[in-house]
Design a protein that fits this description.
Distance between the termini: 104 Å
Strand content: 5-15%
Number of helices: 4
Order of helices and strands: HHEHEEEH
Helix content: over 70%
Largest sheet: 4 strands, mixed
Shape: rod-shaped
Number of strands: 4
Structural class: alpha+beta
């Protein structure tokens, strides 16, 4: 009987082994898509974490660069304004250059009849060029002149000089200051 019991035990063990093998195959077959999805999700999470880190670094670099550009822009603006101020101060101190500039612009006005608003200093420099037919008004806040007639309007004021100096020298100044 022992032999019979042993055969039954062997058959039982064989059937259990086959059942375990079959269950393992079914589990592997059923779990494989889930494992692939798990791996895919892990990869996606890893990518998102890396992208997040890259984004943080990128933002920090952008903010740093933006801050530097803002500081450079403010410094550039200050330097250019100082250049224009110095240029104008030198022009107003050099009476011959100022006289030539004013005279050339006043001579642009042909035989017009109109009103000349001029500051006293400018008037004293160019009174030989000014025509008697003009109505002259002294305005010491003007720093330059404004001529108006029905056909012509000519202005040469500190604000216009400042703008022209800046516009004419902007590119060269930027190259000198920020190479």
């Amino acid at each position: 009987m022992d032999d019979f019991l042993q055969k039954i035990q062997n058959i039982k063990d064989q059937k259990l082994a086959e059942l375990n093998k079959s269950i393992t195959e079914i589990q592997n077959r059923e779990l494989e898509p889930i494992r692939r999805e798990e791996l895919s999700l892990k990869n996606i999470v890893k990518q998102k974490i890396e992208q997040n880190e890259d984004l943080k670094v990128s933002r920090a670099k952008f903010l740093e660069k933006s801050s530097k550009m803002g500081i450079q822009s403010a410094a550039k603006k200050d330097l250019i304004e100082k250049f224009v101020d110095d240029y104008l101060n030198n022009l107003f101190k050099d009476k011959s250059r100022l006289k030539d500039l004013l005279a050339k612009n006043i001579e642009k006005i042909k035989d017009e009849k109109g009103t000349l608003n001029i500051d006293e200093n400018s008037y004293n420099l160019v009174k030989s060029v000014i025509k008697d037919s003009w109505d002259i008004k002294i305005d010491n806040h003007l720093k330059g002149f404004i001529f108006e007639s029905q056909a012509v309007s000519v202005e040469l004021t500190e604000a216009i000089l400042r703008k022209e100096i800046y516009d004419n020298n902007k590119t060269a100044l930027n190259q000198i200051l920020f190479e």
